[in-house]
Predict the 3D structure of the following.
Amino acid sequence: MTWFINYLETNEVAVTDRGFAYGDGVFETLLLDQDKILLADFHKARLTRACHRLCIPFTQDELDKAFSFVQQQSQGRQCAKIIVTRGSGGRGYLPPNDPNVTLVIGFMDAPSYQSLADLGVRLSVSPINASINASVAGLKHLNRLENVLAKQAQDKVNQVTSEADFFESILLDDDGVVIECIQSNLFWFKNDTLYTPLLNRSGVQGTLRANILASSSTTINVGRFTLKDVLGADEVFICNSLMSVVPVTCIQSHFQHDFVIGKNTKRLQSLMKLN
């Protein structure tokens, strides 16, 4: 990986940076293809919304400069990560009145998810719950400990399972409401209606999720659902900005529940390629 901090090539961050000390910041993970940032407008909108919600001063000019830099530095098909922190300063949790924002940009090779998109993936249900906090719900902030713990738990299961590995795990909140997966959003079809969890109390409002909600012509139901609702689906898929739409062929809860890769999921895969 190649890292830039405030546009200087380096991988050294100050230990006093609030992003390091408190997770006081936000980030975006971008996919670049042929020197173009895919879903750029959705990423810009989410980053702007997150900085505004957290009162991190990051102007439109600074946003445009950062995305222009990413595009100028790109080399073919790559991933780029943009991290915006409140910088150093303040006293304990109390942030400074006039923060000196830190901008971190990193580049790495883009993974290929084509085989997963073709064949589908298996999901488990995580023993780690998603936190309920409406103040930061939807934001891609730097506080990701529950995702770390959920990924660790999934890895332990994969080490002992005799079946194919679980690619992702479904996260529920403390009320048993379905939220998302560890690193992707969750959708399902039932009787040709598209369903996805409401993320006003927990979870990350993904950019591909936003694109699907804006682009799909099918009836969409966004609400509070339980695992039983998901397990009763006709088709299930997960998505994020790097892997796009990936079908789910199995969910392991108390029992194994199998799903087909249906026409609705395939249609959305084609639609997202066009977008």
Remarks:
- The two ends are 28 Å apart (CA to CA).
- The first strand starts at residue 2 and ends at 5.
- The chain has eight helices and 15 strands.
